[in-house]
Write a structure and sequence with these properties.
The protein has 415 residues and is an alpha/beta fold. It contains nine helices and 18 strands.
Amino acid sequence: MIEKNVFNAHQKTVKQLSKKLNESDWLLNYRLKALQIIDKLEPPKIERVDYSKWNLWSIPKGQEQIIKGNKWKLANEEQAYSLSDDGILILDFEQAVLNHENLFKKVYEKSDFIQQDNLFNAFTMAFLTDSLFVYIPENLHVDIPLELSFILNNKFTQISNRQVLIYAAANSSIEIIEKYSSVENEKENKANIFVQIIADVGAKVQYSSLDRFGKNTTAFIQRAAKTKKDAVINWALGAMNDGNVIENVYVNLDGQGSSSDVKTVAITYDDQVQGININVTNIGSNTVGNIFQHGVALDKSTLSFNGIGHILRDSKNSDAQQESRVLMLSDNARADANPILLIDEYEVQAGHAASVSRVDQEQLYYLMSRGLEQKQAEKLMIRGFLGIVLSEISIKEVRQELIDTIERKLAQYDN
């Protein structure tokens, strides 16, 4: 149990944060309820990755600096004005409460933010420092991708806790690109990020992310999704961080006929640790959930892929497929590919493939026999290995930026 005087200090911090963000009482109440149960909750379990010493969940101080030090930006400010004419909202929670409180509250209460069933959820809720709300109205089809960037300023050496809520109303469609990075990277920082996507009946969301936090930034990034009937949420995730990061993704295919494809590429190097945990649950009938992960482990790094496909009872005619593969280019690297299928229903399809392997020596010999040096040949093989996933990413800009980031990491491998 938290001692009374300590609890009171934490409660004061929570209220200060809420006041600085001009939150309504109902949002403050969610914070306080989360604070009350924090010491009773366990952190999310990520198979094969022990992150207990990362100290992700320490109480933030200097809230004003935290809020001012980090910033969101739109890649195209002019696009924001045109989108607002169509009724699209791109607001932080403060603006959402001020101008659209009834709508925002209705959507927020559908999210997993209020389900404080583990330490990450409760801590992020209680000590929330910044936020974003994206709302796409019914029947609206957005042709131009919406690109959002979050820059974490390590100069302030504090923890950032953020929530992003994306709601696609019935029969709408949109492509969203989120980019995460950090500056002042010689300093240490922590980040807890919770992204929730809700796709209503018939809605379609293409979500792409490029995560590039610096070496001294430790992060827990959780992305969650819910689909209603015939909704689609597809993912293209680039885990290109330099620091120790957990990426935890879970998708609940609630609605009949809904689907989700999760495609992930990752590279680890030096002594970095990245744990990628993808969980897709088929709840409605005729749902389809696919997990596709490729990664490369260099130097003394650790890369773990967990793929969990779960078909619940009464999810007839559903499909759960997954593939997780890791390429190791060092005797000192550690890699895991853990496929898990949980099937509670008949009349379904499910399958998995997983491998952890070193560079194919015959292929390497062939390339070197054509005049390439060993590292050149290995880099070429890496590009081909990751290119299988990259080719599946539909947004050209995201694909090219991922390729550029991979090239940067491979240049470090040369050194």
